[in-house]
Structures are given as structure tokens and as C-alpha cells.
Design brief:
Number of helices: 14
Oligomer: single chain
Strand order of the largest sheet: 11-10-9-12-13
Order of helices and strands: HHHHHEHEHEHEHHEHEEHEEEEHEEEEEH
Distance between the termini: 56 Å
Largest sheet: 5 strands, antiparallel
CATH architecture of the largest domain: 2-Layer Sandwich
């Protein structure tokens, strides 16, 4: 399967291959070929903390850590999440999402872990606002999806309506949801607030884009407005290649890698980002007061750290944690994934901010081969061992949302 993935990655670097995939995908799906491929590649989509899977296989991903015994770790580092929050009432939450088995499983198990009630709200339900306004939710979790432009817009519109026309508390915050999977909005947010980031320019006119490409320094990074795992990222090595890309975007269209909806094309804009030579990339994750981090990695056959599926599970430096912590405090982030570049001078730059992120393992950080989290306590970073990220890190999200509701109640 690894060989197939490498070949597919190389093939999808070419535009004609992406167009072909988008057009044949419905046929492959109708003949169950896609289902077979998903089963073969199940490891990247399943939750390794599933107790049944642990009992059957006796392991989950441990990133080649030394002296790591799954069963000993399971017994030693399991967290009693109920002890982390004292419920002052019976809580009931709505979960707005485009339903899929993975999210439904995580929601069910997270709510069970804290003994709170929940209802799933389908973004495609034409009566969703009626159901929400007639509900008794303490709050609403919004799980935006970006399978296509229509679904992405539906979540954006629902977020704005719920925030302005109802009294329901939503999680994550509107600001976090606005920049989620919108690199154009993120670029404006970072620029306006003078947050260190690779210089980014967005063009909505071919002539202005071409004029920029005539004088800019190469290589330069092209990105689509949405797309995870570097699916919409390309390194343009020279002016000829860049102008050709601009012509596709303004006079034709562009497909992201692994795009399966042939109507979801990119056109009419061009987002270009400064290329940082020999950059290291880190992922730092905040959920409430819990912090995690590791270094992104890739092998020689891969171009990008994002989407490589490889990490170096070494604890993040306190300097890196402080950089992200200060941003989170300044903008009152509830839950955020920071993808950070470090240049050769040791300076940090925000590459991406995503309030929803893939969290497939029971922990998102190891420090000296021990799973756990960092917390800022009285101005110092304190490490606390444990598997805090089970069920897609959703138990921590629930705990944080409840704590915010309790704080608001105490101040009334």
C-alpha cells in the first residue's frame, strides 16, 4: 500500500492526472473500488485507541519509541476524564456536522466519557434552524466540513446565523471558524494583526498576478484557499511555471490533488506565499488549557511535511510553546492547531491555523517517550503524563466548553 501511495502522489503532481481522477471517481465508487482502497488503507482512518483493536493487534502507533509496551502504557496512562471537570448541572450539546462514521463515533464516546447528553444535527437538514431554536442545548459544537464549496459555504452561513441571530453559545469561536480552511481569510488575519508569517499575496486579476511574478523571488509557494495535507500546495520553481499556473487559474481552472468532486474547481484568484528555505515545521495543538506538539517530518520521496504522515515525536521547546501561547491568549482561541515554520535563524512563522485537525492517536505528544500534555500553571510549563487525545481530542473539547459555560454562569 505504501508503494501505491508514493506512486499516486507522484502521478497527482500533474494536472491531467488530477482531472482524470476527478472524472473517473464516480465510476470507481459505483464499482466499489473506492471502498476496497479505504479498507486497505484503514490504518490512517481508524482510532488506534479502540480497545477492541488493541486487544486484537496488541499495539497502536508509537512512532518507533524505545522501550514502549502498549499494555503497560494503556494501564499506566489512561485518564479519568470525569475527574478533570465537576459538572454543576446536566449538560446537553448539539453537534452540527456533515455526518460520517468517524466523527459520530468520537462524539458518542466523548459524551459517554463525561456522561453528557448530545444530539447530532445534520448540516443538510432543511429544518435544522427550527430544530435548533426549539432545543434546550447548553451549547453547539460546529464541525465544519469542506468536501465541496457548497458544504463549506453551508457551514459558514450557519455559523454566522447562529452567532448573530440566536443566543446559543457555539464552539469553537466564530473567529476560529472563519479562518478554518480559508487561507485567504487567514492571510488577512495574520497580516492585519502583524503575526509573523511567510509573506503572502492574493491576486484576483491576471495582470496584477503576472506583474508580481515578473519580479518576485523564486521559488514561491502556491496554495488553494482550502485543502488539508498539502493537497492544494505547489512549489513554483521559476517564472515560466508560475505564469502557466496563473493562466490556468484565471483563464481555465485548477484541481487540488486528490480532488474527487469535478465541480469543485479553483479559479479566479491566485494565492502566493514566500518560500522559506530549509525550514523546519512543527505542529503545536491547543485544546482548552492542554497543549501538545511535535516536529513534522518527511522522507526523501516527499515534497511537503504536511500530509506526509510522518512525525518526530519529540516534545516542543518552551520557546515554541510560548510563541503559540501568546497568540492564543491574544485572540482568545479555544482550540487551535498551529503549523509553525522555523527558519535557519531560529525565527518562528505561522504557516497554518486550523481549529479542527486530524487527531487519530491517543496522544499528540511524547516527552522522553512518555505520552502527555503541557499546561501553563503560574507562568511555567508543566508536563502531565496521560492519553489525553482519545476520541479525536473531543473529550478535552467538551471539558473546555463546559468550563467556559461555568465561568460565564459564575460571572452572571
Amino acid at each position: 500500500m505504501k508503494i501505491i501511495n508514493v506512486l499516486l502522489d507522484k502521478l497527482l503532481r500533474f494536472r491531467f492526472s488530477r482531472i482524470l481522477l476527478a472524472n473517473v471517481y464516480p465510476v470507481l465508487k459505483s464499482f466499489k473500488v473506492i471502498d476496497i482502497l479505504h479498507k486497505l488503507n484503514k490504518g490512517s482512518l481508524s482510532d488506534p485507541f479502540d480497545i477492541i483493536e488493541i486487544q486484537k493487534k496488541g499495539f497502536f502507533r508509537t512512532y518507533d519509541l524505545e522501550n514502549f509496551n502498549t499494555f503497560e502504557a494503556f494501564d499506566k496512562y489512561t485518564i479519568d476524564f470525569e475527574s478533570l471537570i465537576k459538572l454543576d448541572r446536566n449538560y446537553k450539546f448539539g453537534f452540527l456536522l456533515d455526518s460520517n462514521d468517524y466523527d459520530l463515533y468520537n462524539i458518542k464516546e466523548s459524551c459517554k466519557a463525561l456522561k453528557v447528553e448530545y444530539t447530532v444535527i445534520d448540516i443538510k437538514d432543511p429544518s435544522l434552524f427550527k430544530k435548533i431554536t426549539n432545543s434546550d442545548y447548553n451549547g453547539i459544537f460546529i464541525y465544519p466540513a469542506f468536501a465541496n464549496i457548497i458544504i463549506r459555504d453551508a457551514f459558514h452561513e450557519a455559523t454566522q446565523v447562529l452567532a448573530t441571530e440566536t443566543n446559543f453559545k457555539i464552539y469553537p469561536s466564530v473567529r476560529e471558524l472563519n479562518i478554518y480552511e480559508s487561507k485567504r481569510t487567514l492571510a488577512s488575519f495574520l497580516s492585519i494583526n502583524k503575526i509573523p508569517h511567510p509573506l503572502t499575496s492574493v491576486f484576483y486579476d491576471f495582470a496584477k498576478a503576472k506583474s508580481f511574478l515578473e519580479t518576485t523571488k523564486y521559488p514561491v509557494v502556491f496554495k488553494t484557499n482550502s485543502g488539508a495535507g498539502a493537497s492544494g500546495v505547489e512549489i513554483l520553481k521559476n517564472k515560466k511555471q508560475a505564469v502557466k499556473m496563473a493562466k490556468h487559474l484565471f483563464f481555465n481552472y485548477y484541481y487540488r490533488k486528490l480532488e474527487i468532486e469535478k465541480r469543485s474547481i479553483e479559479w479566479g484568484y491566485m494565492l502566493l506565499q514566500e518560500y522559506i528555505d530549509e525550514a523546519r515545521e512543527y505542529r503545536v495543538i491547543k485544546v482548552g488549557d492542554s497543549w501538545f506538539g511535535y516536529q513534522k517530518w518527511k522522507d526523501q520521496s516527499q515534497v511537503f511535511f504536511s500530509g506526509s504522515g510522518k512525525q518526530r515525536m519529540i516534545g516542543p521547546s518552551h520557546d515554541l510553546l510560548n510563541f503559540c501561547y501568546n497568540i492564543a491568549e491574544r485572540f482568545h482561541f479555544t482550540t487551535m492547531c498551529f503549523d509553525i515554520f522555523e527558519n535557519k535563524k531560529g525565527e518562528y512563522f505561522v504557516n497554518e491555523l486550523q481549529t479542527w485537525f486530524g487527531s487519530y492517536d491517543p496522544t499528540e505528544m511524547y516527552v522522553n517517550s512518555i505520552p502527555g500534555r503541557y499546561r501553563m500553571i503560574e507562568g511555567k510549563w508543566i508536563f502531565e503524563p496521560g492519553f489525553y487525545n482519545i476520541f479525536g481530542s473531543n473529550v478535552l473539547r467538551l471539558i473546555h466548553f463546559i468550563s467556559l459555560l461555568q465561568e460565564e454562569k459564575d460571572h452572571q
